[in-house]
Amino acid sequence: LSEAARGAAILRTSSLTEALKSQAAAAKTAAEWTPSSWQSKPIKQDVAYPDRAAFEKTLAKLESLPMIVHPTEINKLRSSLKAVCEGKAFLLQGGDCAELFDYCTESQIDAKIALLLQMSLVLIHGLRLPVVRIGRIAGQFAKPRSSPTEIVDGKEIPSFRGDNINGFDPSERTPEPARLVQAYFHSSTTLNYIRTQLSAGYADLHHPFNWSLSHVQDSEVKAKYLKTVEALTESLSFMKTIGADTSSSLRGVDFYTSHEGLILEYEQSFTRKWKPTPGVNGGKEGWYNTSAHFIWIGDRTRQLDGAHVEYFRGIENPIGIKVGPSFKEEEFGSLLDIVNPSREPGKVTLITRYGCEKIEKILPGHIDAVVKTGHPVIWQCDPMHGNTRSSPESGVKTRQYSSIMSEILSALKIHKEKGTWLGGIHLELTGDAVTECVGGSEGLTDKDLSLNYQTYCDPRLNGKQALDVAFTISDYYRE
Ligand code: PEP
Ligand code: MN
């Protein structure tokens, strides 16, 4: 052997030994994982149920209930997210900050699905790439809170933790286990309705979406939007004319569900062992969280040695991790090694949420740190959670459309400079005509917030503002 070949052989052997060692270590830790192993770890945002016996009974009930989503669907999303990770598709994720049981109505679900479909059409047109759609829906009930209590009418009471834990009304703040069962049924019903609508042709690309742009105040912006809508509708009608629109991928679309995996007892109950049947379906044998296709770890519960990371490392679902300004560069390697030891592309989505003023300072270093680990990740921009402020008019929580857009445009620019792919956006939105965020093409101001301020948690983009985001990203790619 030549010197060089010997050197290469040694290198190969030593990297092989390293790889085997790390695989063995990963296998060892993986072997110690069980759906309940998180229970021995320190936990944040835990709920203390006063009636422990009722809580245990509820969990037994949840464990007996059928899965909401199937592992084969989860595996399908997994391969779509691999494409996102490789820069061959874009991920659009959106929905309420906190879903309420009352949002489980035909009109509210329809509005949200139509909005996400319209946004995805605009994005497909701009990026010339497929769009993967994930709703923050059918299970996005639980909320992490900065404080466990709050003062209402001079009295300190437990904070509202989401419809699956307690009620918003001050008289309903004691955590009630039965709400977890209600959460299951509302999730199932919501997803069932989405499935019925999609199978009935609601997602047919010829669906008569409302593209009315009469609200757009700036004539230049309006002209730009009109150009996109015309090009879009023309492409669709051209495909129809030549008969190229009959494929099932144009007749219907995939739609996935997601929520923050916050209440680990609930998530554990829906963690089911599954293995593929040869000749029938593919996929990996393992533990699947069957309460949603995709779940994420919030910015408040992502401690390396904490219960949430422990739970998430054992499931086969693709997962998200929120990355806020306090995320330390040196944490990325360890965290990614724990949750994705096999370095599967698309398994982990890093959802960055810094705020429009901090992103320029923090994201470049975060990208460098992740690139250094060699881990493939999807970078997704959440331009909502770092841009919340109080309205000077009324004191309610709001977000400025321009700050949201500015964080997205910064993310696009920084990823381009770094040679990484901004794989998606993560938005809080609703199809209803709410007035919770200010700005956008309709020109909502602080004074307008009181017109239709509905949210019990964070302010959402309304349909028009959410479409503004899609049009602007689409433009970015077209120009
Ligand atoms: C959220 O997505 O609603 C949320 C609470 O986000 P974060 O964990 O990033 O604060
Ligand atoms: Mn939120």
**Strand-pairing-aware structural class:** alpha/beta
Spatial arrangement of strands, main beta sheet: 1-2-5-8-9-10-11-14
The percent of residues in helical segments reads 40-55%
Number of strands: 14
The coarse silhouette is globular
Measured distance between first and last alpha carbons: 55 Å
Strand count, sense and barrel status of the largest sheet are:
8 strands, parallel, barrel
Q: Give the cofactors and ligands.
A: phosphoenolpyruvate, manganese (II) ion
Average residue pLDDT: 92
By DSSP (H or I, 4+ residues per run), the number of helices equals 13
Strand-residue fraction? 5-15%
Order of helices and strands: HHHEHEEEHHHEHEEEHEHEHEEEHEH
- Radius of gyration, whole Å: 23 Å
- Uncertain runs are 5-14
Walk me through this protein's architecture.
It is a single chain. The protein is α/β, with parallel strands linked by helices. The protein is 41% helix and 13% strand. The protein has 13 helices and 14 strands. It has helices at residues 3-31, 52-64, 71-85, 106-127, 178-199, 219-241, 248-251, 264-269, 307-312, 331-339, 359-373, 401-418, 463-478; strands spanning 90-95, 131-136, 149-152, 155-158, 256-260, 271-274, 286-289, 294-297, 319-323, 348-352, 378-381, 388-390, 397-399, 422-428. The strands form four sheets. An eight-stranded parallel β-barrel has the order 1-2-5-8-9-10-11-14. A two-stranded antiparallel sheet has the order 3-4. β12 and β13 form a beta hairpin. The longest helix has 29 residues, at 3-31. It is globular, with a radius of gyration of 23 Å. The protein starts with a helix and ends with a helix. Phosphoenolpyruvate binds next to loops.
